[in-house]
User: Fold this.
Amino acid sequence: MQRYISLMRLTSKGLAELADSGSRRKVSEDRVAALGGRSVAFYATLGTYDFVQVFEMPDNASMMQYVLTARRDGFVDPLILPAFDSQTYGDIVGRVSPAQ
Assistant:
């Protein structure tokens, strides 16, 4: 499974319908599960982004399908970041030849 971090900002529609955000989060998690993934963590945050969510998804295509559906709904504007755990990052660094 690939891991992704989503940084989300509420849109005007999301702010106008803020009271329903809990039920929308459940819909989001169900959509992720239907695509073979899972929501690992979800946080409300202060600052530039309103929410941070960590996903595990089978592949980029599944993540793209989820993101397009979420954007179509219009409640959040997400920024998706592929994420690498420390082991995977270490493996990648090990394959990078030293600068000559």
